[in-house]
Specification:
alpha/beta; 7 helices; 6 strands
Length: 181
C-alpha cells in the first residue's frame, strides 16, 4: 500500500527533530539505509520494515567514505527523483537525503572500524570500505534513532559488519537481515 505523500528531508537537524517528535509520540521508527539507485531488493526492505514499524525512514546517501581513491565516486549511478517515486510505491513515508558536508563536516575525524569481520572477503580487496560503511551507518543511527534497521542478505558481509557494530556499540536497535530479492 503506497502512501499519499513522501516527506523529503535534507537537513541533519531537521531529521533529528522529526525523529525526536515521532519517538515522543511513541512511534516505532524503522530505517533502510541506501546509496540510492533503488531496485526491487531495496523496496522489499522498505516493505519488510513497514511490517514492524509505524514509520520507515529510507536514506539516500552516496557515501564518499566507502570509496577507495581508485574507485570512481562521481560515476556512482544516481536517480533521486526515480528513487523517491519507488520509495513511495513501497509505502515509505520519509526519505532522508543529507549532503556530504553535513555528514562529514570539514573538521570530521572520527571513524568506526569493525576490525576482523571487515578485513576479509570484500574488505580484503577494498581496504577501508567497511570503515566508511560502518561510520555512515553509525551516524545515521545517531541522527534517526531507529527502533529497527533492515538490511539485505545480498550484502552478507556488510550485514555481518553492521550487525557486529550495532551489538558492540550497544545500539538499542532490532537489526533485521532480510532475504535477498
Amino acid at each position: 500500500m503506497a502512501t499519499k505523500t513522501v516527506k523529503i528531508i535534507r537537513s541533519v537537524a531537521q531529521m533529528q527533530k522529526l525523529s525526536h517528535a515521532l519517538a515522543g509520540k511513541g512511534k516505532r521508527i524503522g530505517i533502510v539505509p541506501t546509496m540510492g539507485y533503488l531496485h526491487d531488493g531495496h523496496l522489499s526492505l522498505i516493505r519488510r520494515a513497514k511490517k514492524s514499524c509505524d514509520v520507515v525512514v529510507t536514506t539516500i546517501f552516496v557515501n564518499p567514505a566507502q570509496f577507495a581513491p581508485h574507485e570512481d565516486f562521481a560515476k556512482y549511478p544516481r536517480d533521486e527523483k526515480g528513487d523517491i517515486a519507488k520509495i513511495k510505491s513501497a509505502g515509505g513515508e520519509i526519505v532522508f537525503v543529507p549532503n556530504a558536508k553535513d555528514i562529514y563536516p570539514e573538521s570530521f575525524q572520527t571513524y568506526v572500524a569493525v576490525e576482523k569481520l571487515a578485513e576479509m572477503l570484500e574488505g580484503k580487496i577494498r581496504p577501508g570500505h567497511f570503515r566508511g560503511v560502518a561510520t555512515v551507518v553509525a551516524k545515521l543511527f545517531n541522527i534517526i534513532r531507529p527502533d529497527v534497521a533492515v538490511f539485505g542478505m545480498k550484502d552478507f558481509q556488510q550485514a555481518a559488519v553492521l550487525g557486529q557494530m550495532t551489538r558492540d556499540l550497544g545500539y538499542p536497535i532490532k537489526f533485521v537481515v532480510a532475504p535477498t530479492v
